[in-house]
Write a structure and sequence with these properties.
Largest sheet: 5 strands, antiparallel
Order of helices and strands: EEEEE
Shape: elongated
Radius of gyration: 16 Å
Number of strands: 5
Helix content: under 10%
Strand content: over 45%
Amino acid sequence: MTVATVSVPVVSGENVKIDYSVSVEAITTANWATSFEVRLYRDTTLITTKTFIDSAPSAGTHRFSISNTQVDTAVSNETAGYQVRVIFTTATNVATGTALNRNMNAIVFE
């Protein structure tokens, strides 16, 4: 699921600093386990992945915050589309998973 996007006009060779943060909220029953990946893409190219893994015996609402800064080098003259995606890889006894507080920005350095 794509949770944040930004489009940036770039020239080949420019560096783009991308900052993002996202909170993932999971509503669980007892003995839950979850793992998910927060992935940063430039158009269809995967740039980086952060993996989160957690579990607990108690049911409830749990919130996990992930943030990252990445520097990408533009590969062509274009408007690059950067996306943050959350992909659940494990969701045992997880009723729902929601992305909240989604923030993303990009700064181009010539």
